[in-house]
TrEMBL record:
Its cofactor is FAD. This is FAD-dependent oxidoreductase. InterPro entries: FAD-oxidoreductase/Apoptosis (IPR050446), FAD/NAD-bd_sf (IPR036188), FAD/NAD-binding_dom (IPR023753), FAD/NAD-linked_Rdtase_dimer_sf (IPR016156), Reductase_C (IPR028202). Signal peptide: none annotated. Keywords: FAD, Flavoprotein, Oxidoreductase. Residues 336-412 form the Reductase C-terminal domain. Residues 9-313 form the FAD/NAD(P)-binding domain. It comes from the Bacteria. The lineage of its organism: Bacteria, Bacillati, Actinomycetota, Actinomycetes, Kitasatosporales.
């Protein structure tokens, strides 16, 4: 690595939100060396949240979701080419076209992809979609605009729920199949998921919970699905919303702590090797990373959040061009939002890191509330429904490790909050959808191999 951290060669693999914001931040931090951004999609970086909302509703087209550049990062963009590996000794990124890119520092922002339907033949039926890319959204929006008789959504997480909401707004019949007891239960726990189930059904969704889809039917084109309870759903469009897969397979031989839960890194975004040794030249940010957070028991957090991708990318960029004493940690509180069935849902903290919840403002009946989550007597998260202005207050409680249940403060009631009840966060393995913030603990993703001593 050059003595001057502001020069040299930096390669960013992953040309989406985190990759773009990191490239911009590197220049803002004074980096003057060569900067290359590699992306497997042919498009410049674009925004993904509108794909399940405005694009499906016909309010925007998929090709208008490009992310604005805050400044020209003066980078070489290698788009439409996939990275296939990293040689950490030669310090080169290998590309599928046979070329390799030398680097002094590498930032991995490869994010996630949609989890596919497990049966490839059924997944290939015309009318079966996942939703992750511009092409996915454009194709699905076109099919929805054609007015299908019924849409089947497999998975009741945030993406599946947003798709179902868009279908109902378009006047389409929709069935949601969820393996768990309710929509959003993996992300928000049992109490709020009951409200989610009511909202689905009140808006005309045919919600099936506690069931799995055992087969997709069709002869070339999708015609319906078989469920585990013996019933059949006839539909002409199917959206598979089974969560995300982290894009780490290309790192299998790189010697990094990369596995199904992402790339483990320290709070400064430096990647760990598979032996738990921190690197000084490989960094990770965004959905593909997992990192320790002191407010949540130093659990390794794995986030699929827009805001986290931006904030972590900026921390990574700063640390890539700063000497050790000037590096800073990524300690932002996870924040997430979703709009569905006319409700605005916002979350701060880690709802899955909880044992009890309490409704601190509003009520389930009013469908306007602030729910606070606690773990072992302190506040760890809050979720608001159509009450987003209260979120900053609860963020402060999380940051200051305030006691749970919280005292009256921002509350719109004169009396103390309701009696805490168990948060009922289920094991993600029993769901079709997972949390938007996953606690990944310290479990290794793969067996370690014995490294022979140097000769």
């Amino acid at each position: 690595m050059p003595d001057d951290l502001k020069s040299g060669r930096i390669v960013i693999v992953g040309a989406s939100l985190a990759g773009l914001r990191a490239a911009e931040a590197l220049r803002e931090q004074g980096f003057t060396g060569s900067l290359t951004v590699v992306g497997d999609e042919p498009h410049p970086p674009y925004d993904r949240p509108p794909l399940s909302k405005q694009v499906l509703l016909g309010q925007a087209t998929a090709d208008t979701t490009g992310l604005p550049m805050r400044r020209d990062p003066d980078a070489e963009w290698r788009l439409g080419v996939r990275a296939t590996g990293v040689d950490p000794l030669a310090k080169r990124v290998l590309l599928e076209d046979g070329e390799s890119l030398p680097y002094d520092r590498l930032l991995i922002t490869t994010g996630t992809r949609a989890r596919p339907w497990p049966n490839p033949d059924e997944a290939a039926l015309d009318g079966v979609f996942t939703l992750r890319t511009r092409e996915d959204a454009g194709g699905l929006a076109e099919r929805l605009a054609a007015g299908p008789e019924r849409v089947l959504v497999i998975g009741g997480g945030f993406t599946g729920s947003e798709i179902a909401s868009a279908c109902r707004e378009l006047g389409l019949e929709v069935t949601v199949a969820e393996r768990g007891p309710a929509p959003l239960v993996g992300a928000l726990g049992g109490t709020l998921s009951k409200l989610a189930a009511v909202m689905h059904r009140n808006h005309g969704v045919d919600l099936r919970t506690g069931v799995t889809v055992t087969a997709l039917h069709g002869n070339g084109s999708f015609t319906g699905a078989q469920l585990s309870d013996g019933s059949r759903v006839d539909a002409d469009v199917c959206v598979v919303a089974l969560g995300a897969v982290r894009n780490v397979e290309w790192l299998a031989e790189a010697g990094l702590a990369a596995g199904p839960r992402g790339i483990a890194c320290d709070a400064g975004c430096r990647a760990f090797t598979m032996y738990g040794i921190v690197t000084d030249d490989v960094f990770a940010a965004g959905d593909v990373s997992r990192f320790p957070h002191p407010l949540f028991g130093y659990q390794m957090l794995s986030l699929e959040h827009w805001g986290n991708a931006v904030e972590q990318a900026e921390v990574a960029a700063h640390n890539m061009v700063s000497p050790g004493p000037l590096r800073r940690p990524h300690l932002a509180i996870p924040t997430f939002w979703s709009t569905q069935f006319g409700l605005n849902i916002k979350s701060v903290g880690v709802p899955t890191y909880s044992d009890h919840v309490v409704i601190a403002q509003g009520s389930l009946e009013a469908r306007r509330l602030a729910m606070v989550y606690g773990y072992k007597g302190r506040v760890t998260a809050a979720v608001t429904v159509d009450m987003a202005k209260s979120l900053d207050y609860y963020r402060h409680l999380i940051e200051t490790a305030a006691p749970f249940p919280p005292p009256p403060g921002a509350a719109d009631r004169a009396i103390a909050a309701d009696v805490p009840v168990p948060s009922e966060v289920p094991d993600p393995s029993v769901l079709y959808h997972g949390p938007t913030v996953a606690l990944t603990g310290y479990l290794p993703d793969r067996r370690l191999t014995v490294v022979p001593p140097a000769r």
